[in-house]
Specification:
Layout (H helix, E strand, L loop, with lengths): L5 H38 L14 H15 L3 E8 L4 H5 L3 E7 L3 E3 L5 E4 L4 E12 L12 H6 L1 E13 L9 H6 L4 E9 L13 E5 L2 E6 L7 H16 L8 E3 L7 E2 L5 E6 L3 E9 L4
Parallel strand pairs: 1-10, 3-7, 4-13
Antiparallel strand pairs: 1-2, 5-6, 5-10, 5-11, 6-7, 8-9, 8-12, 12-13
Helix pairs in contact: 1-2
Length: about 290
């Protein structure tokens, strides 16, 4: 007879107990991290370091994001989609990430628009195509194709995403950290609609971003895998998996076409789309209260 190893037996009990402990503790950890991010954003103060253990997976990061959305009690008008590049896309099993855009931080480019960034934190401006969903979608659906995604689009606009976080190292710490703080979003500037977007080939347009009149970057939306439609498909499936309702009028900021360009208060930003559409804004410091 082979004797039972007491060490293995005790290790098994310890490991099972550890798993149960972590399952019970995870919602508490997510809520605590979320509350610290929400408080920092509300008061306009920066966070010198990540406020807790860094999420090890995107699902853990989205748990923090969901807790933060709940803690803000703000209305979500849309979602930003960002890119996860290799090799991190292989590590995390996704080439995109998502974060909420709040109604209170969404502005029309028809007026003089300004975007707020957190003093001492991270701040950037991104030229993006903004896609508007035309109808309420089934809750929990997770099998959208590119063709399905295209059928949900009511309009495509040009715009600028304001990317900002109280955490200055948010992008350096990886996509799970970015996801956990609202996907690093702090605003959306909505520009003009693209006439006849279905036949415009907008994903092939050359887009240019200037900061204080100097070109910061240029590119086309088709540099993303499957282009803007890939971002829509990803977002619809992501929200379906998370059990989040998608209503008519939801905006999707489909990804930084010209890259992520850091900005500081007092600067001006202009995004040029093809040869005819322009979106501009100024950058201000988020108020400290």
């Amino acid at each position: 007879m082979t004797p039972v190893s007491h060490n293995n037996h005790h290790n098994g009990i310890f490991n099972e107990g550890r798993r149960l402990y972590l399952r019970k503790r995870s919602p508490m950890i997510a809520t605590n991290i979320a509350n610290q991010f929400v408080a920092a954003r509300r008061h306009g103060r920066h966070l010198p370091e990540y406020p807790g253990p860094i999420p090890e997976s995107l699902s853990a990061a989205y748990a923090v994001q969901d807790a933060a959305i709940h803690a803000t009690s703000q209305s979500v008008i849309g979602w930003k989609v960002g890119r996860i590049f290799p090799p991190l896309s292989e590590k995390f099993g996704a080439n995109r990430l998502a974060g909420p855009i709040f109604t209170s931080h969404t502005l029309s480019a028809d007026a003089v628009a300004s975007g707020n960034i957190f003093t001492g934190g991270f701040g950037a401006a991104e030229a993006e195509f903004l896609i508007k969903i035309g109808s309420d979608l089934p809750l929990g659906k997770q099998d959208y194709t590119l063709e399905d995604a295209e059928r949900q689009i009511e309009a495509v606009h040009v715009g600028i995403e304001i990317a900002s976080s109280p955490l200055p190292t948010i992008n350096e710490l990886g996509p799970a950290v970015t996801v956990s703080d609202f996907g690093n979003n702090n605003g959306l500037i909505i520009g003009q609609a693209i006439p006849d977007w279905q036949n415009s080939n907008f994903a092939d347009w050359v887009v240019r971003l200037e900061i204080d009149g100097t070109v910061a970057g240029s590119g086309s939306a088709n540099s993303f895998p499957d282009g803007p439609l890939g971002s829509v498909r990803f977002l619809l499936n992501n929200l379906g998996e998370r059990g989040i309702a998608i209503k008519a009028g939801t905006w999707i900021s489909s990804g930084a076409v010209t890259g992520v360009h850091q900005v500081t208060p007092g600067q001006s930003v202009q995004a040029f789309f093809d040869t005819s559409l322009l979106v501009s804004c100024t950058i201000e410091a988020a108020p400290i209260v």
